[in-house]
Amino acid sequence: MEKQKILIVDDSKMNRALLIDILEEQYDVAEAENGAEAISLLSRHRTDYSLLLLDIMMPEMDGFEVLAYINKYHWNDTLAVIMISADDSPANIKLAYDLGAFDYISRPFDSTIVQRRISNTMLLYARQQRLEKIIAEQFHEQENNNRLMISILSHIVEFRNGESGLHILHVNTITKYLLKQLVRLTDQYSLSKADISLISTASGLHDIGKISISDTILNKHGRLTSEEFEVIKTHSMIGANMLLDLPIEQQEAPLVKVASEICRWHHERYDGNGYPDGLKGEEIPIAAQVVALADVYDALTSERCYKKAYSHEEALKMILEGQCGAFNPILLRCLQEIADTLESELMDISSEQETENIQNIRNKIDYDRLFSYEKYTFLSRKQKDLQLLYIDSLTSVYNRRYYDEHFQDADDIQAMVIIDVDNFKYINDNYGRDAGDIVLQRIAQTVLSCVRKTDAVIRYGGDEFVIIFFSIPPDIFEKKLERIRHSVDSLIIDDCPELHMSVSLGGSYGSGTTKKLFKAADNMMYQSKNTKNKVTICFLNEDKGSRYFI
């Protein structure tokens, strides 16, 4: 059987010779005399090695720098790293583990210990790799099924809409090319390959809300009346609401989050003249912006029951002249630069190829965004310091200091919520402070699961939490608060099943300073507190003054 290969990285020739003498009978051993040489070797042949024995103190590039580099580029998904050093201080050992080392061996070397530690590491690492592979395969199979369901649902909509079934495939293709070109032109949106794959996949659900529109309107030949057009326009809200009504754990899936943004806002326009919310410019999520442009281009170049298809050139001209509404200038530039590619790509997709192409899309899902391993997470010292500075140690949400330094003088907040835990003193007095801590932790995590990643959840003090919202429609704001209240009301603590938790929520919605929104939300919270387990919201800046939702 072929021996497993080990790379020894140490600037001391004597140390390397000692390790080779211990290991050469059982393993195929290679050497590097410094960190830079090791990186060079691994960049070309890293799959050849099962283990890296890495010294800390070396010229050119020390062991910690090598380890950080390996971690950054995920090379440790194929090889284990054991640190070797005469300095076995707790700080060094902790840093090594934090950077992804699998084990730590101190000098001087004991041959029996070295052999056993390496043997155990090889065995454990191989088992871990097999388990991760099994889990990933199971996860991928589940996501393939999800992709299949998206395709089926989307095609049901197209079937009802009298379309060929190619619209989804076209929008997927256009979206993918637009996003790739966008990344080439600007780093404004920080889109990874996984993001591009995720948005392209989610684009298939952009018109899912049309499933609720009557066939009479959906397939009407000729111009719609103003009343009929208003009905058609509801499909964007309906589609988003269908996804927001999913169970909370499914709403948190990145695919669902992106799809709901696309559903709701793919008819918004860059100048604010779209629907349903009249969002303007970068208020519109980039996923919705791109799908909006892809949708319009394909609608123009495809035949419909109410129109003939425009040529590629005519469609481009109409879009660039603003005849189909305003779009992000950067995206219009992207469309121009990929125009020839799109024309040839879409022309090659025929009805006979549809099934094959859709299957190919299903097989190209990038799971980096959906499936990640904690061992790949590398925080710089600065990031860790910030985490200690701004994260509440008990609940793992932001702390009061974060609120004071980031939101105290803000004037661009859309909405604010203040949450107070009902009967918290009673819980502490009767169940103990440990139970009280568990209650706060569970409530904080429940609140996090109900909001978006762009929203800020803050433990303001004691049993009070604050949520800061940006760019959220009022009806979604109302639903999120009610969902938080209901989710907390349904919580059960295994060790104390008889302990009932609830929260009183006060919300303020509308443009204004932080102090103004906080004061209004605080007043609403105290109104909710009168009866407990309740939501009260104040809507500011409306023509008829504030209104209340209870």
List keywords for this structure.
single chain, alpha/beta, six-stranded mixed sheet, five-stranded parallel sheet
How does the SSE layout of this entry go?
Blueprint: E1 5-9, H1 13-23, E2 28-32, H2 35-45, E3 51-55, H3 63-72, E4 80-85, H4 90-98, E5 103-106, H5 111-160, H6 167-185, H7 193-202, H8 215-218, H9 226-244, H10 248-251, H11 254-265, H12 286-301, H13 312-320, H14 329-337, H15 339-348, H16 354-362, H17 381-390, H18 400-406, E6 415-421, H19 424-431, H20 433-450, E7 456-461, E8 464-469, H21 474-489, E9 503-509, H22 514-529, E10 535-539, E11 547-549
Parallel strand pairs: 1-2, 1-3, 3-4, 4-5, 9-10
Antiparallel strand pairs: 6-8, 6-9, 7-8, 10-11
The termini sit apart by 73 Å
Individual helix count: 22
Q: What is the rounded Rg?
A: 29 Å
Overall shape: it is globular
Helix content: 40-55%
Q: Using DSSP, what is the number of strands?
A: 11
Question: Average pLDDT value?
Answer: 82
Report the sheet-strand fraction. Answer: 5-15%
The secondary structure category is: alpha/beta
Strand order of the largest sheet: 7-8-6-9-10-11
The low-confidence parts are 350-385, 542-550
Largest sheet: 6 strands, mixed
